[in-house]
Amino acid sequence: MNVQELYQQKLTTAEEAVKIVKSGDWVDYGWCCNQPVALDKALAARKDELFDVKIHGGVTMWMPEVCKADDAGDHFTWNSWHCSGMDRKIIGKGMGYFGPMRYSELPRFYRDGNATTDVAMIQVTPMDAHGNFSFAVSASHIGDMLEHAKKIIVEVNQNMPWVYGLTGTEINIRDVDMVVEGENPAVAAMGAGAPPTDVDRKVAEMIVKEIPNGACLQLGIGGMPNTVGSLIAESDLKDLGVHTEMYVDAFVDIAKAGKITGRNKNVDRGRQVYAFAAGTQKLYDYIKENPDVMAAPVDYTNDVQVIAKLDNFISINNAVDMDLFGQVNAESAGIKHISGTGGQLDFVMGAYLSKGGKSFICMSSTMTAKDGTVKSRIVPTLTNGSIVTDPRSCAHYIVTEYGMVNLKGMSTWERSEALIGIAHPDFRDELIKSAEAMHIWRKSNKR
Description:
It is a single chain. This protein is of the alpha/beta class. It folds into 2 domains: 9-181, Glutaconate Coenzyme A-transferase; 198-437, 3-Layer(aba) Sandwich (Glutaconate Coenzyme A-transferase). The protein has 15 helices and 25 strands. The strands form 6 sheets. It has an 8-stranded parallel β-sheet. α7 packs across α8 and α8 packs parallel to α9. The chain starts with a helix and ends in a 10-residue tail after the last helix. The mean pLDDT is 95.
């Protein structure tokens, strides 16, 4: 039987396909832009027939239908591997939970049986002449998840861009149980957010000065990394490379400005490598069948040893806050969950191990709470319940609008002095008093 005949044999409706889901099952929705649409609606329609259906997802871009009903939590439980704003809303409904992890380990969870999948349902590209579907806009952990899923349903979306990639970025019709032709929605867009602030630009300008020609870039999500990307596109830098967890619009701008060639990359020379991509239509048009771009599983993109092989690796990420010991929190506000560890720790470590590499954690010096209170992001100790994303032993460059410090080699009193020096001036005296009380402030320190 040829691939077209197999396709027709396995083609069904979303309503028929989701009938294989049973109460108590683990269902996997994939990741980010690959989460299902038609299948999600069909599963939600079965709500009253089901209970204790547990769903895995992550970096969710829209509210799933299974989570919309007031009593959705009586039937479905959402389990997010990494939280977007939408995942936080689901958690806020009382039906969602976060799975702590280093993102690079996620494929192994499925290989080792730490994560179970009774039914997998994801969006894919149309099938090619060889019977393959690409899910490479979100390569991530999907290959390993599908390999160990008991049943696989693919939802074809004509608008999903085919991206060239490593093994683990496609699935063949022979390995699929059912095919559903979806509603062909536009690939979910993730905008660049608000225009850069003066603080964003100050921080970005300091970081860009530290980037050499031929560097290999990783940008995290958020305003400051995006602003760094914009300034790189406007700079005189040349022959840059890309090896990143998330591919964002900023990389497209840098590439179209002629700054990316990848000719100095020690690994995957000439290719822009990523684990998943999310942005505007500009990004999806750029990565479609583009030989300069390569999707790869996250246990490759975020592997510390792979990152370390890339000379002059530059990692740029955000933080919520950090303390005077150098502990970085990038995922919670106290016990309120915000995002996840993701790949930040892996890139922080990998960048430092890279020859000439640098890891930058950037943040504004203050934040304004909902009640209008202005608070310092540099604090004596992290708030009770806050998560340590990067331990103090791994912190490298820390940047606010008041300066940049390299914490490597510094003792506790040197760290407190350096970090207070880039805190907002309104909070420095208070931080000094706290440092003295914690015995990490010397009498000879600057005052």
